[in-house]
Structures are given as C-alpha cells and as structure tokens.
Write a structure and sequence with these properties.
Helices cover about 65% and strands about 0% of the residues. By secondary structure, it is an all-alpha fold. Helix 1 crosses helix 2, helix 4 packs parallel to helix 7 and helix 7 packs across helix 8.
Length: about 200
C-alpha cells in the first residue's frame, strides 16, 4: 500500500486526539499521561511516539490544526471596502466565527472553560487580531481615528472572547446567526449607542 494513501496513521492520530479530549472531561491536562492516552486509544506507545514527541507536542499540533481551521473560517476575502461597514456585512463575518466555534464545540469548550494549556487563549486572540489587521490596513491613517489602533484591536477581540466563552458556558442559548447579528451591532454602533444613550448633541462651542 502506498504510505501516502494509507489511512491507518490518520486513524491512529484521530483516536489519540479523541482520547485526549475524552480524558480532559475528567482530568486536568497535567494529570494525563501517555500511558492513559495509548490505553484509551487502543494504540501502542511506539505508535504514539511515531506521531508525537510527548503530550505537549500532541496538544500543540491539535491547537495548530484548529487555528488553521479558524483562520480559514473567518478569513476576510478580497479587498476591504473603504465604505462604512453595514450591520448586515459585519454580521455575516461574525456568524462565520460562531458557526466555526459551534462546529468544533467540544474543542473550544474544553480549551476555554477547562484551559489545559495557558497559551491557547493567546494563540486564539492572535489569530483573530491578525485577521482584523486587514481592516485597519485598508483605512488610511487620519484624524478620524480617535484611539490607539493596537489598544482598539485588543479591546475588540477581548470583548469577542468574553462573549464566546459566555455563549459556550451557557450551552449556546442563541444561534450563531443571532450572535453574529448582535456582535455586529455592538461593533458598528459602539458601546454607548448600543446601551441606548441618545446621539451626542453637537457642541456648537
């Protein structure tokens, strides 16, 4: 059999990955051993070490794979329009983010709510931030930008992280489409207007 077409290595990796997340439902990451993984996945230790250096390497590869999928799911396609973003357009973008989380719920629920590795949230935020940089790059620097760009990005993605974690912790009480719409309104209208304050009166000095 052609090694490149042999499905057995992938099946072994998939079983090991599945077993890791099954164990994480009951044990902290620090307590999980290679022996537990191989016994639960019904593979021998040599098979495990043929794919991974140790359990940390296993987790790193899983995170890398999911960050690639996240990047593909939320990638901003084509040229970014200089026009003022509509709620509908922004909503479609955020819906893709929530659909991706929904489709990979066990992974994100485990990583966000149980936190087997401390670096995951940083990786997740960096992935979002790199994607949003394209929006800023399309806008020429001008006096209309009233806050620091990097601080604004950190504020926006930090808020999204809090919303995602709350959504998962409460067992996804709203659909991905609804979450995308609500988040887009928060982004487009801003915090103050979203709360319900009337438009700021003009200062005629």
């Amino acid at each position: 059999m052609n090694p490149e077409r042999d499905p057995r290595p992938k099946r072994s990796r998939d079983r090991i990955t599945k077993e890791l997340f099954r164990l994480l439902d009951h044990h902290p990451f620090s307590a999980i051993t290679v022996k537990m993984l191989t016994e639960g996945a019904a593979v021998n230790r040599s098979t495990f070490y043929a794919h991974f250096t140790d359990k940390y390497d296993l987790m790193d590869k899983i995170v890398d794979d999911h960050m690639e999928k996240l990047t593909e799911a939320i990638r901003i396609q084509g040229m970014v329009s200089p026009d003022y973003p509509s709620v509908e357009k922004v909503s479609r973008y955020f819906e893709r983010l929530f659909v991706h989380i929904e489709q990979n719920e066990h992974f994100y629920r485990t990583m966000f709510l149980q936190g087997p590795i401390k670096t995951f949230i940083s990786r997740f935020l960096d992935t979002l931030k790199e994607n949003y940089q394209r929006v800023f790059e399309a806008q020429p620097a001008n006096e209309a930008r009233v806050v620091d760009q990097d601080l604004l990005l950190n504020y926006v993605i930090g808020g999204q992280l809090g919303l995602l974690i709350s959504w998962l912790r409460n067992n996804r009480p709203y659909s991905a489409a609804y979450m995308g719409d609500q988040l887009s309104r928060m982004i487009v209208f801003g915090t103050v207007e979203s709360i319900g304050f009337p438009n700021r009166p003009q200062d005629f000095g």
